[in-house]
Amino acid sequence: METKTFFNLPSARAAPDLREKPIFDDVPKSNISTSWRTFEDQRISSQSLIDVFANRIPVVRVKNFLSKEERDRMLEIVSTHNIGSYDTENTWPRVGVAGITQYDHISDKNLYFNSVKEARSLQDRWQKEAGVDVIGRVIARLQQMTDMKVQLATEDQREYFAGVLRAVDRGIGVHADYAPYEAAGWTIDQSVAQVTWNILLNQVPGGDTLIYDRQWQAPDDDIAWRKEFPRDSYHPQMLQGHPFKAMEAVPGDLTFFNPRNFHEVKACDTSRDRPVPAIRFTVSSFVGYLPKHGDQPETLVLWS
């Protein structure tokens, strides 16, 4: 039997008397319910995608969706590209961003759509200089797996932007995303279910995403738990007693989860040799499910 010594623990073999023995009467066990039938990552399939939309499972993962060589070329382009940030009134600590989000343009729809062309400049460079069409590849995989119509979301014949790059070093607080709540009056509010996909571009220590089996219920959750600052975050006490999934950050993997579940991104790990957190670069968008309506087939739409 292998033994190992930790700085604050003696060897288990050397000190067997430290092993726990019952002292108190048995304590009744409590059962914590969950919507998820498993906590394990699931491979992509038509069924697993339906399950993550329906919140029956926490994560779908496609391993090695982008190769290391592709990611290296993309990161080289990122290093010479202009990186802005989310609105710091809404999101703090600061999150670097290339592209635009509907959330940061809730009150100005025209500005959002007028900014789409410029927001695609990084993706244009990835296609031309690195030979990588991330959005096209994600759309193709969704079409292959679901046999549904898959496209960028549109409004009055104008396309939404999809595929925001985020640069995160200090994490992202507890929040949730759901278009029927956040996008009233936009066509994406017709989505009856929503997932988000993410691809990590670089190797980082830590930086996992915690996904809670607790779905956003507006406005009750906002009245009871929303923080005054930053305005997109919620007090963690609301999550007491709810199971969570720790989604490992693996470079190149394509992951899907349901963002109506409250979730947070942990800061990258630090050490004595590296006291400043690494920057975690990801590309992502939302995917909404539109059920069949009249002569329109069931459709998946992408936006950021």
Task: Write structural notes for this entry.
With 304 residues, this protein is an alpha+beta fold. It has 8 helices and 15 strands. The protein has helices spanning 46-53, 68-78, 109-114, 116-119, 121-130, 134-146, 179-182, 220-225, and strands at 60-62, 84-85, 96-98, 149-152, 154-155, 158-159, 164-168, 172-175, 193-200, 209-215, 244-247, 254-257, 261-265, 280-290, 299-303. The mean pLDDT is 94.
Write the layout of secondary structure elements.
Layout: H1 46-53, E1 60-62, H2 68-78, E2 84-85, E3 96-98, H3 109-114, H4 116-119, H5 121-130, H6 134-146, E4 149-152, E5 154-155, E6 158-159, E7 164-168, E8 172-175, H7 179-182, E9 193-200, E10 209-215, H8 220-225, E11 244-247, E12 254-257, E13 261-265, E14 280-290, E15 299-303
Helix pairs in contact: 2-5
Instruction: Report strand %.
Output: 15-25%
Helix-strand sequence: HEHEEHHHHEEEEEHEEHEEEEE
Q: Would you report the number of β strands? A: 15
Q: What would you call the structural class? A: alpha+beta
Radius of gyration: 21 Å
